[in-house]
Amino acid sequence: MPVAASAAAAKPASDFVLASRDIAEGGTIDNKFVLNGFGCKGENVSPMLVWINPPAGTKSYAVQVYDPDAPTGSGFWHWGVYNIPASVTSLAQGAGNAAAKLPAGANGGHSDFFDTGATGGNGNWGGPCPPVGDKPHRYIFTVFALGVDNLHAAAGIPKTGSAALHGFVLNKGLGDKMLGKASFTATYGR
User: Fold this and answer.
1) What angle do CA 144, 186, 80 make, to 5 degrees?
2) For residues 64 and 51, what is the distance between their CA atoms, to the nearest angstrom?
3) Average of per-residue pLDDT across 1-20
4) Where are the alpha helices (DSSP H) in the chain?
5) CA-CA distance, 78 to 188, in Å (whole number)?
6) What pTM was estimated for this model as a whole?
7) How big, in percent rounded to 5, are the helix, strand and coil portions of the chain?
8) Whose CA is closest to 119, among 109, 107, 132?
9) 53, 61 Cβ separation under 8 angstroms
10) CA distance 53 to 88
11) What average pLDDT does range 120-145 have in this prediction?
12) Among 24, 113, 18, which Cα is nearest to 72's?
């Protein structure tokens, strides 16, 4: 059995938990975290996230936030942070609002707001802003525990790759180097 597979077997994925003091699982996302643009009037602050009980052998983490209900045919990516060192088990409120606020070594990826001007120059956290009249959308926050130090080097993808490319690599492309993931879902509608 490969080392990564035995490490994942040693600690069940159900022990790995992601939470936030800012957004309750199953709750409604507060206006503080909603986009300020495209007709939404939020503050666009990224929420605090914390994770516990990572699988043995974790060398780095990645975080993604995804809206599967966006009327795009492919959902909508709101945040990506990659190469978070294994010693880091949280992201502070506002970490997604400027690259300098991310943990040392981590890098923000592109959201689907990239190049729109809606998130400022960082191209990182973009809060919820579903179309008016839609049923409240679900926002899935996920942390991935990885058995590699550098996602981009291990997967052979550029840091500038889309969130969907990163999502493919995280969910499938790394194989047994994706040791576990933890998620929670909250909603927002207008």
Assistant:
1) 35
2) 13
3) 61
4) 3-10, 151-155, 163-168
5) 13
6) 0.91
7) 20, 30, 50
8) 109
9) no
10) 12
11) 91
12) 113
